[in-house]
Specification:
InterPro entries: DgoD-like, Enolase-like_C_sf, Enolase-like_N, Enolase_C-like, Galactarate_dehydratase_3, Mandelate_racemase_C, Mandelate_racemase_N_dom. It holds the Pfam family MR_MLE_C. One of its GO terms (molecular function) is isomerase activity. The protein is of the alpha/beta class. It has two domains: 101 residues, Enolase-like, domain 1, CATH 3.30.390; 239 residues, TIM Barrel (Alpha-Beta Barrel), CATH 3.20.20.120. Strands 4, 5, 6, 7, 8, 9, 10, 11 and 12 form a nine-stranded mixed β-sheet that branches. Helix 6 links the parallel strand 5 and strand 6. Helix 2 runs antiparallel to helix 3.
Length: 379
């Protein structure tokens, strides 16, 4: 079997652009992947065309060999765009390997260690407690979710006194706990918007009395000693990792004792191959893995197969999609879990190529925050 061609399709999932990639072979077996849109969106197709020249004519089932080759042809470590491109190639190759073997990808990873994959739903805002009850109850009734993620910010964190925001956060979570079912789990994503570590610690203390599922990414990821300091002083599970790129960065975080839960993104770190190395390092530090997954149906399918085979997997982020017409049969939660598809080879998801013929691109860009004094900040 040899790689013969690749195609890219700029599409969207709900209100975000998504680049889909198809790799074809001379045996009419093809594989699919979904690329992370770090932006600029249109930078990825020419980059993928360049990388494709490194693997055309090769056996696609030699996934580790080909991904290693792509890394080694880069004189310097690839950044966000380079790793997004390598990740989507990795995914498509695993899809081909599974289809060629007639097996689900998770069977090629050593087989499933669990029968289904737990998911949580990102709400991403801080709705009034009564609205949060209504929203989470609907998600529970429809999909069986019992775990959710909220924002800890009830207002602009740069407007007004910080201590007042902290108090409001504690009061808010207390009220949410009071009126929602006791078995519901609530995580809080601070979205790396806090600059001072002591403020991250104060916010964690406001959440602690009400048992958060985890406290995600209060500060930026770059300075590992700050994560060690925060983790040593908080009483809640600390999670981070969506902005880290490879096993070496995660090794630094874990050896510093900087997290209880890591959140690598399988579309960012280089694909399944690198994701498994990262997870193994975490396992050796008694740390669990909750993959970052704000993506579409294809990326979710890849995550499900990784999670099925990974012993220290904890929970997968997944928000149901409203608009992704190219995904014929996406994975959808049942009883708060994704069911495995043992009778389907590859990632077990069908792509409607007819739907991809229609231009469905939507432009999106991240907006920065402006502080009251006019300075910029992370959104």
């Amino acid at each position: 079997m040899k790689i013969t061609a690749f195609k890219t399709y700029m599409q969207r999932v709900d209100d975000r652009p998504r680049l889909l990639v198809k790799i074809e072979t001379d045996e009419r077996i093809s594989g699919w992947g979904e690329a992370y849109n770090h932006g600029p969106d249109w930078a990825l197709p020419p980059l993928l065309a360049y990388l494709f020249e490194q693997i055309v004519g090769e056996d696609p089932r030699r996934v580790e060999f080909l991904v290693l080759k792509l890394h080694q042809q880069c004189r310097f470590p690839p950044g966000a765009l380079g790793l997004a491109a390598i990740s989507v190639i990795d995914h498509a190759l695993w899809d081909i390997a599974g289809k060629a073997a007639g097996l689900p990808v998770y069977m090629l990873l050593g087989g499933n260690v669990r029968d289904r994959v737990k998911v949580y739903c990102g709400v991403y805002t801080a709705p009034d407690p009564e609205a949060a009850l209504a929203q989470t109850s609907e998600l529970n009734e429809r999909y069986g979710y019992t775990a959710f993620k909220l924002s800890p910010y009830r207002r602009d964190l740069h407007a007004g006194r910080w201590g007042e925001l902290v108090r409001q956060t504690g009061d808010y979570f207390g009220r949410v706990r009071e009126i929602t079912p006791s078995h519901f789990e609530f995580a809080f994503d601070a979205h790396a918007r806090i600059f001072e570590p002591y403020q991250a610690i104060q916010l964690a203390e406001a959440l602690a009395p009400y048992d958060p599922y985890f406290y995600e990414e209060p500060i930026r990821p770059e300075h590992i000693p700050a994560w060690r300091e925060i983790k040593s002083k908080v009483r809640v599970p600390l999670a981070t990792g969506e902005s880290l790129y490879n096993r070496f960065e995660f090794l630094s975080l874990l050896t510093a004792g900087g997290a209880d839960i890591i959140q690598p993104d399988i579309c960012v770190v280089g694909g399944i191959s690198e994701m498994r190395r990262i997870a193994t390092i975490a396992e050796a530090h008694y740390v669990t893995v909750a993959p970052h997954n704000p993506m579409g149906p294809l990326a979710t399918a890849v995550n499900v197969h990784f999670a099925a085979a990974q012993p220290n997997f904890k929970v997968l982020e997944f928000k149901p999609h409203v608009h992704a017409p190219w995904a014929v049969d996406p994975y959808i939660p049942v009883d708060g879990h994704m069911e495995l598809r043992p009778d389907r080879p590859g990632f077990g998801i069908e792509i409607d190529e007819k739907a991809l013929e229609r231009d469905d691109y939507i432009h999106w860009e991240r907006k920065i925050t402006r502080k009251p004094d006019g300075a910029t900040a992370y959104p």
